[in-house]
Input
Amino acid sequence: MVKVRAPHPDHTVKKILKGPPLSKDPRPLSKKEIRQENEKLILVAAEKVFAEAGFGGATMQLIADLAGLPKANLHYYFPTKEALYRQVVQNIFQIWLQAADVFDAASGPAEGIGAYIDAKMEISRRHPAGSKVWASEVMHRAPVIQDYLETTLVDWTTGRMKLIQHWIDTGRMDPVDPRHLLYMLWATTQHYADFGHQIETLNGAKPLSDEQWKGAKTCIKRIILKGIGVSEADFADL
Amino acid sequence: MVKVRAPHPDHTVKKILKGPPLSKDPRPLSKKEIRQENEKLILVAAEKVFAEAGFGGATMQLIADLAGLPKANLHYYFPTKEALYRQVVQNIFQIWLQAADVFDAASGPAEGIGAYIDAKMEISRRHPAGSKVWASEVMHRAPVIQDYLETTLVDWTTGRMKLIQHWIDTGRMDPVDPRHLLYMLWATTQHYADFGHQIETLNGAKPLSDEQWKGAKTCIKRIILKGIGVSEADFADL
DNA sequence: GTCTATACACTGATAGAC
DNA sequence: GTCTATCAGTGTATAGAC
Output
């Protein structure tokens, strides 16, 4: 008996990724512009496919179809699947780090942590695919960006922990472990991207509305800021 | 020129999964016992491999090697890779739901939420592989357990939200959105499993010690319970 | 820079002896 | 119930015409 082989539990992926290919800019372009244009096209498509299917489940064919290019062209711009993946992950990491800026510019915990939550929630909303790729990469023991974790991320975390400790020492918040506070901030905000499907399902199969996103941000900020002993007067305007 | 093909960014997986195969019980066994024994062996191995490599990156060969069985035997016990995966995911879901019991048995928010955090943190610690498989499944839009999300999970969540609302209505905690509070609990506790590698890296490449796990639990409970307005006297014994 | 055709490796699954 | 050998399908990557 011939049995049809189930391609992958992620058979939904193909449906989701259906639709018109990403549109190209129709202007006449120089070679350099063509390269930039196509690399961008491929990276955007790759991010979505890697997010939906994981590295192993993603195929160059799926990415090519979504980008509207022949499969061979992908290998012209990126030598291997892994190189393409690596570029996707690095791009996410940049966005992720960028959200840290609001942290430093702040005058105190209410402003700094509040703004950081807002920024990370916006990332979860605007870059859900990127967040998922990042999560997947870390879950699989960071095979391609371990060096970043050990250098950039460690530095970033150390700096932010010192800042939080300073806020504690000057009596502007409770003496909580800065490390676990950071993890809580990462976890809570990232959850809305990584587990977005679960959240949507629990929301009656509908994406969160503008109001609901706003409500989520406010709720998270209230609980955490109050939880670390920031005076309620300092974040009454949420 | 012949180029060696990079097998997968998860090349670390093979190393990690190395070591002596899971030991079998050497007693003489009945056929039924043999079946139970081997199914258990396969499921444990599969959980690890699926967690480390994702569904697409996992291979029946890797699972077989880790279980110490020939590849063909896996197909004897589980007809397809997907069937095996499905069983793994369902097992996780049961553990996950089980943690809910402590929630209901509680007399109020301090006890209920505190115990739930403890229970979920223990799951993250004792079943990190399972947690990762679950996270991966949801991130990929739950291709095999969507029906569970729509039925069991929705029911569970609705019930717990009502309980929290009751606590609010009786003035035992602040009027926060129960939905987002639940998400925060899930996110924060699950983070210690799913992002365990990142946490380890930030901990000097060492797993969290007993003390550190305890510290994490305490820190999370303090922030959240205080954040939702539970009187500090009610959780002073953390 | 684009794209068709194809090489080569690997994986899930099965057949069939023991 | 166990296990070796093997098949068929799919995937990455490349060659080479345009």
